[in-house]
From TrEMBL:
The lineage of its organism: Eukaryota, Metazoa, Chordata, Craniata, Vertebrata. One of its GO terms (cellular component) is SREBP-SCAP-Insig complex. It comes from Oryzias melastigma (Marine medaka). GO terms for biological process: cellular response to insulin stimulus; cholesterol biosynthetic process; SREBP signaling pathway; SREBP-SCAP complex retention in endoplasmic reticulum. This is Insulin-induced gene protein. Mediates feedback control of cholesterol synthesis. It is a multi-pass membrane protein. Keywords: Cholesterol metabolism, Endoplasmic reticulum, Lipid metabolism, Lipid-binding, Membrane, Steroid metabolism, Sterol metabolism, Transmembrane, Transmembrane helix. GO terms for molecular function: lipid binding. Belongs to the INSIG family. InterPro entries: INSIG_fam. It is found in: Endoplasmic reticulum membrane.
Length: 218
């Protein structure tokens, strides 16, 4: 009975963390996508522009799901590799990481360079700086690269099929700096997921003790 109760507590914890990460992903998707639309970086069909935040309906849930998956994978991979992440583990650091990530996105649409290559190199340096400042783990770097690759491939397919498009594409159908945004986004969401995994186990311990006491009394 105690094992089943413990399993239920862990499942509930996983669901709570996933919901928090999903909400964060939806919020960031709405804000950052709106910024790119206003600066004419991405173009959607005319009927999309009348919807909530001028965003396609599928973008927030897709980004929210991606954030939940990535945020849950980071602490799992840390545990699997036997390398618990202890670098700058506090919410203040996580909030600064989010602020830097938003700043990188803002720079991608605000900064004016002679060509996209210079902008891409600048954003790549900023993204690596974000990882070095707030992460510095092998698992974080590896998952960030994987996230950037998969998200870029999916975006290429969406643009190729005419779902939406980028202005001035220089990396097949998208902008060359897009993988940098996905990389920094993966690292940011991963840090949120790690922090949630570190904070919520303390809540789990209280729940497990109460469950054990209840079983003992019963």
């Amino acid at each position: 009975i105690a094992y089943g109760s413990l399993h239920d507590v862990r499942t509930a914890n996983l669901i709570r963390r996933g919901l928090v990460l999903f909400t964060v992903g939806v919020f960031l998707a709405l804000v950052l996508n709106l910024l790119q639309i206003q600066r004419n970086v991405t173009l959607f069909p005319e009927e999309v522009m009348t919807t909530l935040f001028s965003s396609a309906w599928w973008i927030p849930p897709c980004c929210g799901t991606g954030a939940a998956v990535i945020g849950l994978l980071y602490p799992c991979l840390d545990s699997h590799l036997g390398e618990p992440h202890k670098f700058k583990r506090e919410w203040a650091s996580v909030m600064r990481c989010i602020a830097v990530f938003v700043g990188i996105n803002h720079a991608s649409v605000k900064l004016d360079f002679a060509n996209n290559v210079q902008l891409s190199l600048t954003l790549a340096a900023l993204s690596l700086g974000l990882w070095w400042t707030f992460d510095r783990s092998r698992s974080g770097f590896g998952l960030g690269i994987t996230t950037a690759f998969l998200a870029t491939v999916i975006t290429q397919l969406l643009v190729y099929n005419g779902v939406y498009q980028y202005t001035s594409p220089d990396f097949l159908y998208v902008r060359s700096w897009l993988p940098c945004i996905f990389f920094s986004g993966g690292v940011t969401v991963g840090n949120i997921g790690r922090q949630l995994a570190m904070v919520m186990p303390s809540f789990n311990c209280v729940c497990v003790k109460r469950v054990a006491q209840t079983d003992f009394i019963a």
